[in-house]
């Protein structure tokens, strides 16, 4: 009998029928034999008011439903529609449970049939999708979804999505389908029934060998061909501008020459050829990426040496590979190869995944992740984790699947030809351009068998992050959750985790030395208890020292008597971990001496224990350095979140100035290093940047290519003259004043506004002052650290709502690209000086003062000026943009250093205005 599917979507007054929320629209789409055969939808009178938020979200108003039937009038028809069908919805638990409540309320039987969740199915079949919201999936699959958040449009789009996902299932190899079927019983909806139907359908015909798929050891993969054939071609760099312009216009007839971009190309070409370093600031609109990629490719092809391009953010890394490299391939008269290279742990270990598939005890997260990876293997050429959209549980499970240098050769051997990391290394060895990120670049430079040439040619984009990236790379972090996860994975003998496996291997092979297991168990339990005590103490200390609700950084020094208890606990932890390490090593050595007689499974367990042993050693070393023997050149602090006291504590150690050491030891050895960014200079000088890297005395070529945008015609700056001086008020008092100005600005600009803060504390105070006033209730407010979601999700949501205001802190001051009308108004609440008690700032200032320098002019002011420029850069991204910058900190006018901020951005009109004049000017300008 053919399965009948009914795809349902509801619009409701809220999330909880138990709290009195009701349905305002029902829609059902019937599918039989893979065809849509019937549809039914109706508005429903909820017997209550529809809120403004729901009206804005769905477009359904009180007026829309005033003549609609009550649910009681349509309940029988709905019950009949879903009877005997498989109930399908996008997030089936919500729609079905809501509908069940209403049907039961009206005296009907609940639905007892099969369910199918298209969110769950989409996660499996589209493992690399950016997101699993219906509108995102509909856009990706090019499905008709004209009215998101209206039930009839949503149900129809979900039905089309189901049909597409079923097609994708039928396109998979039979072996993959069978593996998916075995895992699907751990899911929350009956995806197993759909997979079973697809297997049955496949078995009725002879299996066709899929052309793009190869199989090995029961797994199906995308067939990858090596297209890196080296062909000798004429590659002479065009030194004259006319030659470059002709080449660029040949590919892109509308290309307009920018003097700065062409000069940048020449400077980089000369620097590579003469083996010199260069620092280049390239303003917004110059075309920086093309400015360095074009000469880099010419140089790499001519000299048969790769050029490494490193970025700070993954976003720019992907942009280079997806946008800029294809552009360049169209422009250049010869072919070249550009590859992405990441750290080893980014790549899937096929040996580990094969073993994981054999494990029987799957929970929901591991089963879902295995299913995602099985489908992904038929699509990926790289095996790079960043392609996958994993759940948080999936991310944790990935740690057990990632490639590492510890897997025994015998286990890797069958997979060596298909190994993703080995393939990445081979591809990189033949590439002309290697694209990577600062984090991997630095960790690779610090290893013996580096993949990146120790003496080569480097372009460091987003170079203003070099110092931060270096300090992070050379530092350590100790997080409560990760240590507790490690201890749970090790487990006592009775918990039957890795320690149990280790003991069993020894006793089963007669290699045990008779050491009782309870001594190790006791040490593990004691360590776990003491570790809890340490983090309880640290969170209590942080609670005492922290006034804010948001995330907080608190410096600590062991000389301070208030930390004495932490030192005593840490000493016990170091002793206990040292003793545990010795016991584990002794047992491991016994097994390693007999490695040749161990089976594959045993070797995998040994591999796991070795990895875990490394983590335990890192934990001991971090505790020792933080609390027993700190280094003078390092900074020590706690990151603390009040919302999760003990779990929200992280211990961090990093050098006060890591980049200087890194430059002296590694970067300085490179033949040529190009450092570039849109914001590197302070007061038209690179002295501050050079000082950060310890290059004050080195001769380096420098250039500043300002933005070609006519900022005077595009931007105005407003500074309210009726807001009090920030230094004269408490955080709450100033936040109240700032909130009033933000409300007026948002109303005048009709949203499309971003508000930048320097601290979470002030952001929260201002955000809640605005929320409590209820004046902006018809606006959608998004706040970093409050609204939830990643930075990218916040930005997407902000762009999706017309009357939206986004409140952000540090990470939104830069790297945010919102062109056009989506962002028309930028508010800088406070000049971006780092708080003086922030651990890194305090340590750097102390160091400068010891050297007899003025910390404010040598560090605090230059850092604030750069960040101010970065904030300003968010506003105008294309020559067609127009916008307003509002600075609520009057020190930009009144302080003697205020003019430095004015001079740090392009010449534009600054206006000193009252709150009423501000509103008028915003309306007039925007």
Commentary on this structure:
- By secondary structure, this protein is an alpha/beta fold.
- The protein has a seven-stranded parallel β-sheet, with helices on both faces. A seven-stranded parallel β-sheet has the order 21-22-20-23-24-19-25, with helices on both faces.
- The longest helix has 29 residues, at 517-545.
- It starts with a strand and ends with a helix.
- The model has no long low-confidence stretch (mean pLDDT 89).
Summarize this structure as a short list of keywords or feature phrases.
alpha/beta, 36 helices, seven-stranded parallel sheet, 25 strands, 926 residues
Give a short synopsis of this structure.
Helices cover 47% and strands 14% of the residues. The chain is built from 36 helices and 25 strands.
What gyration radius follows from the Cα positions, in whole Å?
31 Å
Enumerate the spans where pLDDT stays under 50 for 5 or more consecutive residues.
Answer: none
Strand line-up of the largest beta sheet: 10-11-9-12-17-8-18
Structural class: alpha/beta
């Amino acid at each position: 009998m053919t399965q009948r599917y009914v795809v349902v979507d509801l619009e409701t007054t809220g999330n909880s029928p138990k709290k009195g929320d009701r349905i305002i629209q029902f829609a059902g789409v019937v599918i039989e034999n893979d065809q849509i055969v019937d549809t039914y939808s109706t508005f429903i009178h909820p017997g209550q008011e529809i809120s403004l938020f729901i009206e804005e979200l769905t477009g359904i108003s009180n007026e829309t439903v005033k003549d609609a039937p009550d649910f009681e009038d349509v309940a029988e028809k709905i019950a009949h529609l879903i009877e005997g069908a498989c109930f399908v919805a996008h997030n089936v638990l919500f729609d079905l449970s809501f509908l069940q409540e209403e049907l039961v309320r009206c005296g009907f039987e609940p639905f007892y049939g099969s369910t199918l969740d298209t969110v769950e199915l989409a996660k499996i079949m589209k493992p690399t999708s950016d997101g699993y919201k219906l509108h995102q999936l509909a856009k990706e699959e090019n499905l008709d979804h004209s009215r998101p958040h209206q039930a009839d449009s949503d149900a129809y789009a979900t039905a089309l999505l189901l049909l597409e996902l079923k097609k994708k299932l039928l396109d998979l190899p039979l072996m993959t389908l069978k593996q998916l079927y075995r895992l699907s019983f751990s899911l929350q909806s009956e995806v197993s029934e759909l997979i079973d139907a697809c297997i049955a359908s496949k078995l009725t015909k002879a299996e066709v060998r899929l052309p793009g798929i190869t199989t090995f050891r029961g797994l199906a993969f995308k067939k990858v061909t090596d297209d890196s054939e080296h062909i000798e071609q004429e590659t002479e760099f065009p030194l004259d501008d006319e030659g470059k312009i002709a080449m660029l216009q040949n590919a892109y007839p509308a290309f307009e020459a920018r003097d700065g971009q062409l000069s940048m190309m020449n400077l980089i070409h000369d620097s590579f050829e003469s083996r010199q370093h260069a620092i280049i600031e390239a303003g917004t609109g110059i075309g920086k990426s093309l400015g360095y990629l074009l000469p880099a490719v010419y140089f790499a092809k001519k000299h048969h040496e790769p050029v490494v391009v490193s970025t700070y953010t993954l976003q720019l890394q992907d942009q280079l590979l997806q946008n800029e490299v294809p552009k360049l391939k169209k422009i250049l008269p010869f072919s070249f190869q550009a590859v992405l290279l990441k750290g080893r742990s980014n790549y899937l270990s096929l040996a580990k995944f094969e073993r994981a598939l054999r494990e029987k005890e799957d929970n929901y997260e591991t089963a879902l992740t295995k299913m995602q990876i099985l489908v992904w293997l038929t699509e990926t050429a790289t095996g790079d984790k960043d392609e996958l959209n994993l759940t948080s549980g999936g991310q944790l499970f990935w740690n057990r699947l990632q490639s590492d240098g510890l897997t025994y050769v015998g286990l890797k051997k069958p997979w060596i030809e298909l190994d993703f990391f080995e393939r990445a290394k081979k591809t990189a060895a033949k590439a002309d351009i290697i694209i990577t990120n600062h984090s991997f670049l630095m960790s690779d430079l610090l290893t013996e068998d580096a993949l990146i040439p120790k003496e080569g040619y480097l372009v460091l984009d987003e170079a203003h992050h070099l110092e931060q990236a270096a300090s992070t790379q050379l530092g350590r972090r100790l997080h409560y959750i990760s240590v507790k996860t490690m201890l749970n994975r090790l487990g006592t003998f009775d918990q039957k985790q890795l320690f149990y496996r280790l003991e069993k291997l020894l006793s089963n092979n007669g290699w045990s030395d008779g050491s009782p297991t309870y001594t190790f168990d006791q040490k593990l339990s004691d360590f776990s208890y003491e570790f809890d005590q340490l983090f309880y103490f640290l969170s209590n200390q942080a609670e005492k020292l922290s006034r804010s609700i948001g995330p907080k950084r608190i410096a600590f020094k062991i000389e301070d008597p208030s930390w004495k208890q932490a030192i005593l606990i840490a000493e016990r932890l170091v002793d206990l971990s040292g003793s545990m390490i010795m016991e584990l090593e002794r047992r491991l050595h016994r097994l390693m001496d007999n490695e040749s007689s161990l089976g594959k499974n045993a070797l995998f367990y040994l591999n796991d224990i070795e990895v875990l042993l490394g983590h335990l050693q890192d934990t001991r070393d971090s505790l020792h350095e933080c609390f027993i023997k700190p280094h003078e050149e390092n900074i020590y602090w706690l990151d603390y979140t009040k919302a999760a006291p003990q779990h929200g504590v992280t211990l961090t150690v990093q050098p006060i100035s890591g980049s200087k050491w890194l430059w002296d030891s590694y970067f300085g050895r490179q033949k040529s290093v190009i450092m570039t960014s849109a914001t590197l200079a302070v007061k038209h000088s690179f002295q501050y940047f050079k000082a950060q890297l310890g290059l004050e005395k080195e001769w380096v070529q420098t250039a500043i290519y300002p933005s070609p945008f006519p900022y005077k015609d595009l931007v105005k700056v407003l500074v309210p003259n009726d807001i009090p001086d920030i230094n004269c008020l408490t955080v709450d008092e100033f936040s109240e004043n700032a909130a009033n100005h933000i409300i007026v600005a948002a109303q005048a600009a009709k949203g499309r506004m971003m508000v930048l803060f320097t601290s979470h504390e002030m952001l929260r105070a201002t955000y809640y002052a605005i929320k409590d006033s209820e004046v902006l209730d018809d606006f959608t407010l998004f706040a970093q650290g409050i609204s939830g979601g990643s930075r990218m999700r916040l930005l997407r949501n902000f762009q999706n709502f017309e009357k939206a205001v986004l409140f952000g802190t540090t990470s939104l001051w830069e790297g945010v690209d919102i062109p056009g009308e989506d962002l028309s108004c930028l508010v800088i609440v406070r000049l971006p000086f780092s708080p003086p008690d922030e651990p890194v700032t305090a340590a750097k200032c102390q160091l400068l003062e010891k050297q007899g320098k003025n910390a404010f002019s040598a560090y605090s002011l230059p850092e604030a000026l750069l960040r101010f420029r970065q904030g300003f850069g968010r506003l105008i991204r294309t020559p067609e943009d127009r916008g307003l910058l509002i600075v609520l900190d009057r020190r930009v006018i009144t302080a003697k250093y205020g003019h430095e901020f004015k001079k740090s951005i392009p010449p534009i009109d600054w206006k000193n205005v009252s709150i009423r004049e501000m509103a008028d000017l915003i309306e007039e300008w925007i």
